[in-house]
User: Fold this.
Amino acid sequence: VQLQASGGGLVQAGGSLRLSCAASGSSFSISRMGWYLQAPGKQREWVVFITHGGDTVYADSVKGRFTISRDNAKSTVYLQMNSLKPEDTAVYYCYAENFRHLSYWGKGTLVTVSS
Assistant:
């Protein structure tokens, strides 16, 4: 499985961005997809995931502001990020997990939120 993330950029606080992550290869085997972030000088932390059936789980820090969605036909997930804060500044990594619990990672996309 290969993952291609896109959509990062620079935005002012309070603004919005939408990230996309397209899976290719054996995408039929994916059970869940989601995002991690890594802020400057910090460890990578989990943000959200969505299952093949559409169930979602969010980290408390993004609940009510971020929304993940999934287009199974396109093997793509989207992360709509609203009300962005400077502390959301990070490299965002898309990941996928298959039914055997193997994980795949895409290259990160940088999100910068200016105050």
Notes: The radius of gyration is 13 Å. The first strand starts at residue 2 and ends at 6.
